[in-house]
Every structure is written in C-alpha cells, then in structure tokens.
Amino acid sequence: MVLALSILQAITSVLMVLLVLLHKGKGSGLSDLFGGGVSSTYGGSSVVEKNLDRITIVVGGLWFAGVVALGLYLK
Fold first, then answer.
1. In angstroms, rounded to a whole number, what is the distance separating the alpha carbons of residues 52 and 72?
2. What are the beta bridge partners of residue 32?
3. Residue closest to 49 by CA, chosen among 16, 41, 12
4. Residue 75 and residue 63: Cα distance in Å, rounded?
C-alpha cells in the first residue's frame, strides 16, 4: 500500500510541476506553445487556460489526498 501511494505521490508531483509551468504568467507562458495564445478569450482568460486551471485543481486535489493518505497510513 505504501508503494502504491508513493508512486501516486511521485506521478502527481511531476504533473503538478508541469501544469504550473504551463500556466500563463504576467507575460506569455509555456501554454502559448500549445495554442493558448491563438484561442479566443472569454472574460480575459482563454478556454485553454480555464481547462488548464481545472486540470491543475484536480491534480492538486489528488496530490493532497495522497499526502493525507500516506500520513495516515504511516502513522
């Protein structure tokens, strides 16, 4: 069980780093390389950015659940 949770932690950690790097900052972000700059804007944020936000929140939730599960299991 610890091995499965550790693998989940490693995968979600790498995904979180990649997803955060894809977000657009003050200037242009890495998401522009994948079509974020050419999509239409709704309310100042592109559809790609909104979807990237949702994916980041889901992966962050999985990461947090993995941390709590590992903490409870190892306690």
1. 30
2. none
3. 41
4. 18
Q: What is the per-residue pLDDT across 23-68, written as a single tens digit (0 to 9) for each?
A: 877 655 565 666 655 554 445 568 888 899 999 999 999 999 999 9
CB 49 within 8 A of CB 31: yes
Residue 38: the pLDDT is 54
How far from chain centre, in Å, is Cα 62? 10
Which two structure tokens, joined as six digits, stand for 29?
A: 């972000």
The tokens for 3 are 């091995």
Question: Which stretches does DSSP call E strand in 1-75?
Answer: 41-42, 45-46
